[in-house]
Every structure is written in C-alpha cells, then in structure tokens.
C-alpha cells in the first residue's frame, strides 16, 4: 500500500470556526488527544478503507494548531499542521464533505497532500459531531486518483463516524463515573472515620454495662459495613464482592480491636458473594469474634479465634465456620451477650443468607456453622 508523503508548499488555511472556543472545549473534554492506539478505533478505519476502497482512512481530530489522528491506515504521520489539513475545511461544511478532485477545489489545490508524492487527488470526510452539535474532526478517506463514492459508501462512512462518537462518548462517561465514584468513596470513608470516632468517644463516656454492650455492638456492625464498602469500591462499585479479599478486610478490622492475648485469623476460598450476603456474613463473623473475646478467654487466657469460608459443592453452596479454643460460653448460644442483641442480629443475618445455623459448645471451645447458597 502506498503511503502519503508531503511537499513543502503551504496551502490555504481554513477559516476559524465561529464557535471555536466551545468546539475546542468539547474536543478536549474527551481527553483523547495523544492517547495510545485502540483496537476499537483501528477497526473502524480499516473497515472504512475497505468499504470505500481507498488506500487511506483516518480518524482526524482538529485541534487549535494541528490535526491529530486517533487511528490511521495507509498514512504515516501521527499528526499534521493545519496548513496540511483538509479536515479543518470539512468541519466547516455541513456533516459530509466530498472532494472528487483536489486539484479543482480552491481549498485543496495547494495542499501538500495534493502536491506530494504520490499525489492525493480524492478526499471524503464525515464529521465527528458531539451531542452539543460541535464538529471535533472527521472520519475521512483519501485516494491518489480522482473519484466519487457510491451512495452506500457515503452512508457507511457517516454511520461509522457516528460509531466513533459513540465510542468517545462511552469512554467519557466511564471516566466521569470513575471520578464521581472516587469522590464518593473518599467522602464516605471520611464519614466512616468521623462516625467511628464518635462511637469510640461515646463508649468511653458510658458506664452502664448494657449501654456499653449496645454501643460495642453498633461499632462492630458499623465496622462490618465499612469493610463491605471498602471491598465494593475496590470492585469498582459493583454489587458483588470477592470472598477472600472481603474476609481479609474483615480480619484486619477484628484483629485491630482484639486484645493481645487473642489471635484472630480468617481464610476464604475464592468466589463471589452478593453485597447483601457479604453484609450478613460480616455481621455473624464480627459477633462471634466479639463474644469469643468476651466470654471464652477469662483472665487474659491466651487463645485463638478462626474463621473459614469454603465451598460445599459445585452448586453454589458455602460453609462458614467460626471456632475458638476457649473455655466455652457457659452453654449459651454463640453470639449471646448480656443484652441479647448479638444473638438476635446473628439469627437475622442467618435468615438473610437463607442459611442454616448450628452450634456446638464444650469446655474445649465453641464452634458455629452456617450453610448457605450464593
């Protein structure tokens, strides 16, 4: 395939668009100039070249002092000055421009493309029009011989130009959503930190044992929600969380609040849970750990609490096991505390999982199992 070179003569510059400031602002809002090549755009110019039977096809973006090519076939330069640009004329002339013989058109007769070797004789371009009506460039095809496109080729070029804009709009929306999500995540984390500090301050000022238990339970529940939020944002705001990383986050939270004589470990097989399931699981785990710390290791007795989440079968079944090696909970139900709120929350969480909860207590420790399906 022949590739276009340039002569040195300067051609007639296109007039500056009437709304140039807005047009340039629109172009720059896509944040596409000087980015790497992308297959989605490369495929479009390849297809345009084949449909129009031309050796050259370009996605040309007209900047203030240059035209830059997001994708190109049969053309070496990544960008050119505007005195070598036919597209800067095309964006002034409706939605579609076709110049059958560049030597016969005053806009292009002196263009270095036309006087180069080989000489470009033919140009057709469909404008890339943003939703606000501003033309930011063209999808164009060039040939080294005078010619005209068929009606089908014109329609195809215009259809492909709209597809280019769809791709640019999609990338812009994704980028904006990512920025908004990051800002939201930052603000939520700040709110979590503020609320956690208030809870700790309130707990220190309260002396009633039942009230302390309630505040501690709220703090644990809040911590589980914070861990869930962190994991969800790590997954790009999706509604599912990864089991292993979520349990790791939860383990860090629980270990930070555990006394020195109690070791906490969490392990999970790889998989995904819905956010609501992860929230319920976090409630069960945090309550079991809190009550093991409170009841199973009196007198600073050293001990371990271990949490495991593993698959039961190939049909989406999961088994959550919570164990401690303490002295037991005096025959009480795991998760029970003086207020009974822990037991109620764990039972509610198991129902949210549509799971079956079983317990086993003896002087050598406590074991709780929850079977559920993802």
Automatic annotation (TrEMBL):
Record's Pfam families? GAF, HATPase_c, HisKA_2
Q: Which GO terms describe its molecular function?
A: kinase activity
Q: Which Gene3D superfamilies match?
A: 3.30.450.40, Histidine kinase-like ATPase, C-terminal domain (3.30.565.10)
Organism's domain of life?
Answer: Bacteria
Q: SMART domains, from UniProt?
A: GAF
Ranges of residues in domain GAF: 36-178
Keywords, A to Z, come to: Kinase, Transferase
InterPro entries given for it? GAF, GAF-like_dom_sf, HATPase_C_sf, HATPase_dom, Sig_transdc_His_kin_sub2_dim/P
Q: Please identify the protein, giving its name as recorded.
A: Signal transduction histidine kinase with GAF domain
Q: Which organism is it from?
A: Sulfitobacter indolifex HEL-45
């Amino acid at each position: 395939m022949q590739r276009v070179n340039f002569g040195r003569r300067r051609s007639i510059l296109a007039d500056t668009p009437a709304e140039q400031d807005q047009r340039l602002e629109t172009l720059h809002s896509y944040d596409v100039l000087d980015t790497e090549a992308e297959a989605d755009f490369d495929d479009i110019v390849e297809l345009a070249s084949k449909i129009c039977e031309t050796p050259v096809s370009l996605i040309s973006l007209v900047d203030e002092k240059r035209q830059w090519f997001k994708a190109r076939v049969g053309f070496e330069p990544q960008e050119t000055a505007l005195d070598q640009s036919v597209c800067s004329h095309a964006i002034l002339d409706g939605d579609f421009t076709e110049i059958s013989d560049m030597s016969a058109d005053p806009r292009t007769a002196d263009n270095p493309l036309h006087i180069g070797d080989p000489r470009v004789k033919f140009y057709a371009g469909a404008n890339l029009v943003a939703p606000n009506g501003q033309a930011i460039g063209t999808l164009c095809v060039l040939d080294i011989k005078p010619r005209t496109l068929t009606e089908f080729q014109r329609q195809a070029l215009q259809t492909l130009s709209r597809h280019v804009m769809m791709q640019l709009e999609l990338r812009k929306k994704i980028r904006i959503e990512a920025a908004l999500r990051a800002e939201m995540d930052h603000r939520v984390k700040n709110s979590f930190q503020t609320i956690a500090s208030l809870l700790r301050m309130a707990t220190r000022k309260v002396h009633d044992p039942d009230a302390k238990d309630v505040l501690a339970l709220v703090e644990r529940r809040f911590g589980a929600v914070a861990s869930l939020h962190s994991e969800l944002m790590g997954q790009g705001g999706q509604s599912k969380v990864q089991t292993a990383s979520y349990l790791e986050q939860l383990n860090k939270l629980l270990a930070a609040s555990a006394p020195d004589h109690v070791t906490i470990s969490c392990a999970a097989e790889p998989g995904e849970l819905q956010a609501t399931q992860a929230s319920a699981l976090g409630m069960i785990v945090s309550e079991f750990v809190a009550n093991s710390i409170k009841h199973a290791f009196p007198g600073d007795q050293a001990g371990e609490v271990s949490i495991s989440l593993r698959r039961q079968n190939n049909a989406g079944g999961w088994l959550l096991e919570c164990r401690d090696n303490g002295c037991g909970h005096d025959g009480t139900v795991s998760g029970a505390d003086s207020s009974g709120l822990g037991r109620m929350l764990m039972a509610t969480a198991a129902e949210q999982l549509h799971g079956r909860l079983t317990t086993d207590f003896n002087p050598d420790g406590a074991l709780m199992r929850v079977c559920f399906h993802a």
